[in-house]
Amino acid sequence: MFLSLKNDDVASVRKALVKGIPNIIENTKSNGTLIEIFFTELNKMAEDSSYQLRQLYANICFHAYDKVDKELYEKEFFPRVLKLSQDTVPNVRVIIYKCLQNLLTSNFGDPEMIKNIIVSLEEDVKDVVYCKNKDK
């Protein structure tokens, strides 16, 4: 079902999928083959040519950081969070910026590295900073 819904034409359907990802992970992690297949498909989204799938993946990272095991997050999500922090699409970078802020406040990973990426994104005055100030 995940495979078909992630490509749905309706944005609200794709967005609703985000909240269910931690449950899918929790329910499949005991089945090594199934969770491996799931993460293979999930992680392809971070590399997809469609900005919509990369944006969806960024939202999944944003919503999953406090709902999945930290080691699992670090292994499966964090490398792609770092890569997406340099995405060409502003909406993807904005979500990743918010994700990194959450990771920093939750004592995740290397705080200095995360701070440096946040500072770099904050230099993106046209997109990231505009959205950051708009949220206040």
Q: What does the model show?
A:
This protein is an all-alpha fold and 136 residues long. It has a single domain, classed as Leucine-rich Repeat Variant. The protein contains 8 helices and no strands. The protein has helices at residues 2-5, 11-28, 32-44, 51-64, 70-84, 90-105, 111-122, 125-135. The longest helix has 18 residues, at 11-28. The protein is globular and about 40 Å long. The N and C termini lie far apart (36 Å). The model has no long low-confidence stretch (mean pLDDT 86).
Structure at a glance:
The protein is mainly alpha-helical and 136 residues long.
- Structural class call reads mainly alpha
Strand content bin: under 5%
How many helical stretches? 8
Q: Can you summarize the main beta sheet? A: none
CATH superfamily: Leucine-rich Repeat Variant
Distance between the termini: 36 Å
Please provide the count of β strands: 0
Secondary-structure element sequence?
A: HHHHHHHH
CATH topology (fold) name = Leucine-rich Repeat Variant
Given this structure, which CATH class is correct? Mainly Alpha
Helicity range: over 70%
Task: Pick out the low-confidence regions.
Answer: none
Overall form = globular
Looking at the overall shape, the CATH architecture is Alpha Horseshoe
